[in-house]
Amino acid sequence: MTLLRVSAIGLFLGGLALSSIGISKVQAQEFFVEYSGDLLKNTSGGNKRASEYVDILYLSVDDQYQLSKNLNIVAHASALYSNGAGFSANIVGDDQVVSNLETGDSLTKLAEAWLRLEGNKWSLLAGLYDINRDFDVLDSAELFFNSSHGIGPDIGLSGGNGPSIFPFYGLGVSGFYQVNEQHSLRFSVTDGLPGDPERPSSIAAKLESGDGAFSIVEWAYKNEDQTWLVGYWQYTVSEPLSALLSSRAITDLNKGYYLRHQRSIGNSRVFFRLGTADSSFNKYDRFMGAGISFESPFSERSEDSWGFAFAYARIGQEAKINAELEGEVLEKGELNVEFTYAYSVNEYIALQPNIQLIKNAGARNIPSSTVLGIRLTLSM
Hints:
The structure is a single chain. The chain has five helices and 16 strands. Strands 1-2-3-4-5-6-7-8-9-10-11-12-13-14-15-16 form a 16-stranded antiparallel beta barrel. The chain has a single domain, classed as Porin (Beta Barrel). It is mainly beta.
């Protein structure tokens, strides 16, 4: 029995229970299926010249019920499959990850499974949860392949196994409050060590005291033309990069801040992101990214979009010192420049050619990589 079927049966039985006590369904159960595959070729530089195919199959089911006039409950479950190809890990050697489909290991697993209670101006969620569903997200940046435009590497590469994001999800709670028409606040507290890298297909839904917790809070300002996001995150248990910092780590926390902005100008949207992380605990302590995306570039291609962006992660001082002690000299940081065009074949099929230039992959002094790729997306 597949993970999605188990999830669907669970939601169905939950729905019967809710219906039996007089709680009405708001809408029909929604199923979503999407398959994405990236054919990538490193034509120069990096670790080696080679090609790889990276893919993801994502399935989800959602259900919604009305508890009272102003109170709904939403149930969500999802599962994913990945072939585990390691294009960045094995071929390019970059840390920001060329394809946001890459998981590093072959896996088939339950992804998210949560319940969300919704009021007029607020919501409260609990369960297996991807914080990048709601935090550190801009629509315009989702066009790009590189993982740093989804969630910054200052957050994504932090902690013992990263925060609760793709592909390792942890148990947690998340809250949202709409202060007024333009201002809102979010918070989340999740497992500080989500998933299990030794068993990538395992749910690993555990809450152990030694893992600590990861927390994040975000303020958002949105109107018709622009969005501002300001966020703060931290871990309660922090592992220093160097044993020399162990005494300091007792009192200090692994933490950081980020600022994101998006603005619409005609048929284009420009965006930027700035992020920080404590260099005592993280390889990269600063991040800067920006880009522009264009909707409907041609009158006869209203569903297409294209854009270019860059992402730069700066190496932290502690990481440089540790590398020097091991006889390696690191560069100032890693730079990724990306150009892409999303071609909509029809409402179910999309093709997306992509070009990326990676300089100083992994902050090492190695020849720059030029990566050519194309993404196939099938959804329904």
